[in-house]
Amino acid sequence: MCVRCIAKARTAGRAVQALLQGWQAPAGACRTARCFSSLPEPAVDAPARPNELEGKVAHPSLLNEDLLKAQYAVRGELYMKAMELQKAGKELIFTNVGNPQQLGQLPIKFNREVTSLVVAPFLLDHPAVASLYPKDVIERARKLNKMFGGAVGAYTDSRGNAGVRQEVADFIKRRDGYPSNPEHIFLTDGASVAVRLLLNALIRDSNDHILVPIPQYPLYSASIQLYGGTLLGYNLKEQTGWSMDFNEITRSVNEARNRGACVRGMVFINPGNPTGQCLTEDNLRDLVKFAHQEKVVLMADEVYQPNIYQDEKPFVSAKKVLGDLGVPYSNSVELASFHTVSKGVLGECGLRGGYVELTNFHPGTIDELYKAVSINLSPNTVGQVAMSLMVNPPQPGQESYEQWKKEHDEGLASLRRRAHAMTDGFNSLEGVTCTFTEGAMYSFPRLHLPPKAIAAAKAAGKPADTFYCLQLLEETGIVTVPGSGFGQEEGTFHLRTTILPPEEKIQDFVKLFQDFHKKFMAKYA
Amino acid sequence: MCVRCIAKARTAGRAVQALLQGWQAPAGACRTARCFSSLPEPAVDAPARPNELEGKVAHPSLLNEDLLKAQYAVRGELYMKAMELQKAGKELIFTNVGNPQQLGQLPIKFNREVTSLVVAPFLLDHPAVASLYPKDVIERARKLNKMFGGAVGAYTDSRGNAGVRQEVADFIKRRDGYPSNPEHIFLTDGASVAVRLLLNALIRDSNDHILVPIPQYPLYSASIQLYGGTLLGYNLKEQTGWSMDFNEITRSVNEARNRGACVRGMVFINPGNPTGQCLTEDNLRDLVKFAHQEKVVLMADEVYQPNIYQDEKPFVSAKKVLGDLGVPYSNSVELASFHTVSKGVLGECGLRGGYVELTNFHPGTIDELYKAVSINLSPNTVGQVAMSLMVNPPQPGQESYEQWKKEHDEGLASLRRRAHAMTDGFNSLEGVTCTFTEGAMYSFPRLHLPPKAIAAAKAAGKPADTFYCLQLLEETGIVTVPGSGFGQEEGTFHLRTTILPPEEKIQDFVKLFQDFHKKFMAKYA
Predict the structure, then answer these.
(1) Which chain A residues touch B48 with a CB distance below 8 Å?
(2) CB distance A116–B123 less than 8 Å?
(3) Of A31, A113, B449, B493, which has the fewest beta carbons less than 10 angstroms from its beta carbon?
(4) Band of residue A176 on the pLDDT scale cut at 50, 70, 90
(5) Domain limits at A419?
(6) What is the ipTM of this complex?
(7) Distance between CA A379 and CA A340 in Å, rounded?
(8) Does the beta carbon of B503 lie under 8 angstroms from any beta carbon of chain A?
């Protein structure tokens, strides 16, 4: 870690010592530490760090400082409190994580039937197999079993099975109309792992900055910290539906660069998490042009691409916009696009299947990333199977198609109705405003809290939204994440809930929330 | 990353500048950079790093240096060459990774039957379910389905499902006779992830050293480099069956500490990878006492604990020895023990299920590790199910027991026969000596190569064992890993093969090897 810094410190240390001993710099020498590298190494005064505290080598004060500094709000104070209450027997409603099946969403049957046979391929030859599984399920399982060489129990290539990567490339081509190279696709244990892979490679030291929207998904802030980089936030404008302001972003990048910062990458989340906005093609063109002009790697968090709840702004991928813009954008902007099986109507969070597609990346960099993923040997195979089934659903005419289509369409329609119910519920409250959830899985209402509540929070040593969310949790059992965990404009307060409570319970959920809110507002009026 | 180093470099830089400008250190000032921290910050001469090369921000020369420096031999030059040959149509025998099912080992049927129902829980109520699955399989699947709240598609707690963690704790208690706390067990996507979690937390900068056996498993060298630490190797003595020499280890630790190094952790691998030796209780007692005396965190890579091929040295866990030794060892030595579903007779590499048990760790450190794993949300659930089934096999009297026992015992017996066949095959060769594979999955023969071969390798710019393994690959299709990838005593040459080729083919495999070796030796005689 930071070998150059250490070398620099050592060299500078040598220089200090030499100067103290009366050494004179040659005339005209520049005044950087580098010029002193030929000087003798000074004696070490003391070991740099203690190795033990209170009898513990792995004492929490003696761990990797970047790990200690990393914050992860989704499972932060609120979550810990929730765990404590759950242990004590309190019934909780978890809306803190986009975890659909935890709240009763059923998996897509076809996908699980196929998976059921892929993990037990010997059943394919069982005489009774057709009594339990539809014909196209058996066929698909046979095909997948062959693709995995008959052995989902074996490590695959570290980038994932070549057949599945080809299927993903075909899916991307169908979606965008532009070719996709399976050699530039990495399958991972969920998209988070892919995001972290990229950040870890891009970030060299704390001078390397990554542009991240504020509010943001804490995966970014936590990982950037963990890899020793610096998050450079750009505010989304709540008053215009969480839009991007490129004038402000450019200003912020210039200011950072004037400070000597290296701005390496830019994250955007479309549809937005936690903010739920969808980007238009115009927005995406601006983004691509910005990345080209400012020379940053574009990290497109597109994991919510199937979760769209309005018709005006359908999902458009950054890859498609890149292609539409043509040269010089299409052949130069370095784009990493992330997708997952955890979201959409699938909601297969537990299976951990994700991918990243790399466009315009240097082949040597792809080799380095390949090496990096090789250290963990292989992504899990069942997640890869889930990915294959996501990008290749049953087709019209196949036995499972009607059932699949029904589950898919009803699932999406239900999410759309819930997005409306949730946003409407929040907007009906005094002191709450909530941008419509155009996509993704979250509502991010703004809480206009009374001064007394803010003062009480301050007295309790907590951000005012954390203070609110803790009371909400204790009184109603609803687990949310305070806006302060995502970052938000100074002086504003928010919370994030998912829109995932089951449809038959969503009105009760909204009612529970409303009752609490009224009481809270009255208490601190 | 390395915030302190940067601060130190800056402070030292200021001091250099101040001294150049004629500033005098106060009388009696100590000569460390720290004393200069109140001096004004010098102007930045140039931005620390370029952001772009050949039009690429993510240019391979501009990535994280620790990533660039990390080597991962198991999928290194040999593997890349193998991939190239495979693409060109050459038939290969992969003995480079311990990946049993890739070479035809069948999964344990009971485990896969249960998994098949757990991923499709709706089948549990299907009228035909009993025609395909034994009764105890259905029961076990019901139990696991309940344990996962009916939803293996949901994220679990970031440490893994609480029920599975309890089962692992019970397994450890049965194995060792000492209690195990499920709150100190983390389930992970394979043991590699758990190892990396610990290394990432322990290592703060390049002055933090981790003791690792030489030869070692490259996961350690690659991860320590990736996290910016320093590997401090200790040689295993080949002439005494790859034994540990504590005099030498102590000498090496003292020497490193005299250089100012912080020695934070000590890895050992039992049974050994790539070396195949098993540690005795005496060895383990020495290890625990050493860790206590020298204050290092003990990292026990015990993933091959079921793979034992002799009766003299059964597997004994470090946790048991810790307990047997009693106070002060049992209540102070910080021990992390790793295990997996990928090895043993299961060989479920593709499912990615592992765990780490932390003993005597500070509660605050366990919290920090919990936070770290939370950033990835959840280990995959099917790997957790595989772990549950590994620690809880069918019991006598249950319908699947006899079948399970037969598969288990025959699998282990076959591995034992193959360990013998492989070692005997190598020892029958002129210029090859091979320590018996007492455990794990590998043979690590020493190649006594003729001077002409060494010279030819040198001329080709390759370590002599890489040179040998490349020719072996090209002529026979056998994929191995050269000893240089694991580290080895200077001037010795080895290679690693697994003992996993199917039993009916192992004599052919040995013959293929022998023929090549004779030709190679004749060529360079």
Answers:
(1) 205, 207, 260, 262
(2) yes
(3) A31
(4) very high
(5) 73-98+405-523
(6) 0.91
(7) 13
(8) no
